[in-house]
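Input sequence (238 aa), recorded before submission:
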Amino acid sequence: MSTRLDVFKVTYFDTKGISFCNLEQPSINICYLAGQFCYQQLMVIKDNKMANQQVNIDTKHLREGDIIFTSIPNYLYQKIQKGTKSKTSHVGILFKKHNQWWVAESKIPFAKYSTLNDFVARSKDHWFEIKRVKQHLNQAQIEQLKKSAEQRMGGCYDLSFNYHSNKLFCSKFVYDVFKEACDIEIGELESFNALIEKNPSSLTLFWRVWFCGFIPYSTVTVTPQSQLMDRKLECVCG
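Predicted structure, token format:
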């Protein structure tokens, strides 16, 4: 039986965006949060090691505002990738600063700018694909994209992938930046229920384990796969 203090703690975390918290089982929620923290620390260590690799990237056809997709080689993202029958599990937006290409991204543990080389170096087999909005973006729109991305820098990563939380994850970051700056929706907002129905045999057990038995079926999310396949985008390279 939960105490008032336990319920207060879980309610507090719930206001921070973890909408699937079960108030009757606070111990499970605290374990979930502890697991999130440990997973984040492992991801940071692995990313730092991979980012030191040098990658050969042809940048002559790039434009600011291009969207770059990669494949993160760790258990969580590979399971999501397999479950959504996708070749991508991560996404960011390209900008140029001081004559160098950077990627604005939401990554563990928070949103930041990464050099293009570091972003691609973290991808499985250094795979990447770059797409561009078919609708021509003028300079004013590019500046708005930069402003919207900058405002989200430092935002904490949400391992519950809840679009309506006040935290971020990679595809939500891209979706919100383009929606706010250009009124363009990149990708599809869908519930976990709709997402799982596309491949129930692969996704149901995984998400049940990930969410400690309580899948947030009604929670809305957006995936890199839905953005990669968005018909408003055209391929630049990859």
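Checked by second reader. Residues 1-30 have pLDDT under 50 and may be disordered.
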